[in-house]
Automatic annotation (TrEMBL):
Membrane-crossing segments per the record: none
Entry keyword annotation includes Signal: yes
Origin: domain of life: Eukaryota
InterPro entries assigned: CAP10 (IPR006598), Ig-like_fold (IPR013783), O-Glucosyltr/Glycosyltrsf_90 (IPR051091)
Pfam families: Glyco_transf_90 (PF05686)
Taxonomic lineage from the root: Eukaryota, Metazoa, Ecdysozoa, Arthropoda, Hexapoda
Stretches assigned to the Glycosyl transferase CAP10 domain: 212-454
The organism of origin for this protein: Pyrocoelia pectoralis
Protein's name in the database: Glycosyl transferase CAP10 domain-containing protein
Keyword Signal: yes
Amino acid sequence: MHTPVILSFIPIFIISVCGEASFRVWGPGLKPQAIVMPARYFFLQSYNESCNLKDLEVEVDGTSPENQRCRIWKNILYTHNCLYIVRYKLYNTCANLKISIKYGEVEQTYDIKSYIYPEDCNCPRVPTDKWLNDWECGSIPNQIVKDLDTFKAINFDNLREKIIEKFNQPGSISLCHYVVKNNEVYRQCYGKYVGFKMFMDSILLSLARKVLLPDVEFFVNLGDWPLVKDAKDNFPIFSWSGSADTFDIVMPTYDLTESTLENMGRVMLDMLSVQGNVDYPWEERIPKVFWRGRDSNRQRLHLIELSKKHPHLFNASLTNFFFFRDEEEKYGPKAEHVSFFKFFEYKYQVCIDGTVAAYRLPYLLAGGSLLIKQESKYYEHFYNDLIPDTHFIVIKRDLSNLIEKVNWAIENDDKAKKMANAGRAFAMENLLPKNIFCYHTFLLNEFSKRITNKIKVLNDMELVENTSKDCNCDKTNRDEL
Ligand SMILES: *[C@@H]1O[C@H](CO)[C@@H](O)[C@H](O)[C@H]1NC(C)=O
Ligand SMILES: *[C@@H]1O[C@H](CO)[C@@H](O)[C@H](O)[C@H]1NC(C)=O
Ligand SMILES: *[C@@H]1O[C@H](CO)[C@@H](O)[C@H](O)[C@H]1NC(C)=O
């Protein structure tokens, strides 16, 4: 037995405040030495009556170990009610970082005397439990507790063959078998369409760069539908969508995970950007339901029918006909693409299943409109924590009470607004990039504790290439000590 040497590093904050602060600052981006993310972020809440993007000035600056200037890209988002989000992306290692916040006449500075690494540095330093603590991940999410409840002890030596045999039917499945061993990621995929493995690969590699993961073995379903229909099988399989009549273990969708990893990168729509681009006060939003989407579910056609009957309550159109091409005449014409941010010019957003749960739901919650959600057996990793009539309005699966609920919202504007705000607050507390990293780490950690077989890399598995940079993290940490 050897215990890994934990290189703990002591952050030194010098916080200087001049004048009286009429604001509060908090968030993971103020702990950049411990919380490494693609885009670090923190919040500023001002207590002034009215606010403006111009009121806030932030500088994030520092020097690299070679005494060069740090390369940093920063971006300030004004959300609503005087709440700002500041995010910044680091492109090289910094030996110190100074975050200066100037709001009105008041200036506040954070000096972090530590090495601070960009996300692509391969610097796992701490074991999972310490990492979860450093990141202030809180307690194990309810959904993980529930999903793992039936798995007291998992022995893949007895399961592996059975799972592969059951699901590796020609053409039917996209399944990958992963092993994480000594913080390296290995996998073997089964099925014809396994391109989506890239999403699982990227989150695993990203975690392996930050944390000493436990050795663990698991299967990931890359398809839309959950797989484990038979309780007797008791197969532990990770999926992006769960359902009331299956037993898959859910994890954040590839979409939400990708937007976490590509924050300030490739994606435009993520849980932070959506808040900075929908600064429409509730009172100015149009009191109608807005909806756009493709025809991946019969009920979506039904929504169009309702909207044609009640044009004063809806602005709803299909954007694409694929599943019901022959009905385009009745349910068309199809609409031009509308920027997702524009959805929130309207007060009410309706969420109707596509093939499974509609993966846009996190963004709908974050946009500050009232979410009206169709009853569904499908769910993402956080749905079971949402409370109907508190965070959103639930409607019948066949939409038969949709009109009634929209009329209720129009007549009870204060209650509708309160619910919309509660939905947004839920998204802020549970679905931001930090939460998504925490969820994956919790899941791997809890899952690994239940595995009883010896974790080994199997012959046919391939190493998932590590594209990260070395960044001298061991060396720099040692220097620091
Ligand atoms: C916020 O309010 C305080 C106190 O009224 C004032 O001193 C400060 O200038 C205001 N800040 C901004 C940015 O308006
Ligand atoms: C519905 O929304 C689209 C996209 O924002 C807009 O161009 C159109 O004018 C709206 N239709 C009505 C009837 O308001
Ligand atoms: C991953 O990258 C690090 C840093 O460049 C390197 O030390 C390590 O050997 C790599 N691991 C694999 C499996 O390639």
